[in-house]
Amino acid sequence: MDNVEAFFRYLSAEKNYSPHTIRSYRKDIEEFALHCSKLYQLNSIDDVHYAMIRDFVVFLAKKGITTRSINRKCSALNTYYTYLCAIGERKANPLAQHKSLKATKSFIVPFSTDEVAHVLRQIDRSSFGGLRDATIIELLYATGMRQAELIGLKTSSIDWAQRQLRVLGKRNKERIIPMLPSLIKLLEDYMVQRNTINTAQEHHYLLVTDKGKKIYPSFVYKRINTYFRSVSSKIHASPHVLRHSFATHMLDAGADINVVKEILGHESLAATQEYTKVQLPKVKDAYRAAHPRAKK
Q1: Is 170 known to be catalytic?
Q2: Quick one: 139 and 63 in the same domain?
Q3: When you count CB atoms within 10 A of the terminal residue's CB, does the N or C end of the chain come out lower?
Q4: In a shared domain, residues 6 and 128
C-alpha cells in the first residue's frame, strides 16, 4: 500500500485537496482494495484490470449504492490510477475508457425566506450556545459558504474595517465575501461571548463548541437539521440547503448570476446555473397565467 499512501500525500501536498475529499478518496480506495482482496486474493490494487473494476461497480449496484456514489468511487480510483501512470508505476489507466453511469440529479428544494427568518427569530440568544447557533445559521445563509469553509473560519478571517470575510475554499482558493449589517452585529455579540471561554482562546478558530473546541461537520449538521425540522417539512434540512437557499433567493431577487458565482466560489458558471432550475416552477406559473392561449 506504499503507492496508496504516497498518493494521499500527493493529493494533500501538491494538489491541495481538502481533508474531507482525501478522507472520501481513502474510504473509496480502501473499500475497493478490500473487495479485491476477498474476491481475487490480491494484496495490492496497483495491477488490477478493468474487468475487476466493472465487477466492483456491479457489486455496488446490487447492494443498492446510488449511481452518484458509484461514480464518485470510480472517480477516486481514476485519480489514483492516473497518478500511478504519472509516476511510471502503470503503463495505462484501467479506467481510461470508463464512462460514468447516468444519474438522475436530485432536486434540492431550498428553504423559504420565511422559514429562515422564523428559525433565526426562535433561537434563544441569551446563552452562548444559542448565540453561536444563530451565528452559524446566519453565516451560512448570508454568505452561501460551504460547511467546510464555515468550520475553517478563523477569527482573523473577519475584516472588521472593510466589513468582509476572507473565506478559504476548495483548492485553498481564497475569496472575499461582503458582510451584511445584521451579520456584523451578530458576530460582534458572538465574539464577546467566545472570548470569555478559556479553551477557545487557545486557538484561532472562529466557531467553537460550548467547551471551546473547534466545531465539526456532524455538530453543524445536527444543529441545522434540528432547527429547520421544527419549521419545515422539506426532505432535506442540511447546511448545503442553506447554501442552496442563499443562491436561489439571490437569483430570485434579481442578483447578477456572475456575482452569485463569485460569492459561492464556483469555478464555472455552469455550477451556479444549477440553482436557476429551482425557478422553473415559478416560470411555468407565470407562463400559464400570462399567455393568451393558456386558458384555451
Answers
A1: yes
A2: no
A3: C
A4: no
173 backbone φψ class: left, alpha, beta (φ>0; ψ -120 to 50)? beta
Residues 9 and 131 in one domain: no
**Residue 53 maps to which CATH number?**
1.10.150
Verify whether residue 98 is a known catalytic residue.
no
- Catalytic: which of 54, 98, 125, 170? 170
- Among 140-149, 184-193, 230-239, 281-290, whose mean pLDDT is lowest? 281-290
Question: Model's pTM, two decimal places?
Answer: 0.68
Q: Is 243 a catalytic residue?
A: yes
The reply to whether 146 belongs to the active site is: yes
From 137, 132, 152, 184, select the one nearest 265 (Cα to Cα). 152
Q: What is the pLDDT of residues 234-268, one digit of tens each?
A: 778 899 999 999 999 998 888 999 999 999 999 88
Residues 80 and 177 in one domain: no
291 catalytic residue (yes or no)? no
Q: What is the DSSP string of 202-225?
A: GS-BS-B-TTSPBP-HHHHHHHHH
Look up the domain containing 36 and give its range: 2-86
Out of 146, 194, 244, 261, the active site residue is 146
Residues 61 and 147 occupy one common structural domain? no
Residue 124 lies in a domain: yes
Q: What count of other Cβ atoms lies within 10 Å of the Cβ of residue 20?
A: 14
222 shares a domain with 134: yes
Point out the catalytic residue in the list 132, 223, 243, 249: 243
25 flagged as catalytic: no
Last residue of a domain, one of 68, 86, 104: 86
Residue 210 lies in a domain: yes
Catalytic pick among 81, 141, 190, 275: 275
Residue 245 lies in a domain: yes
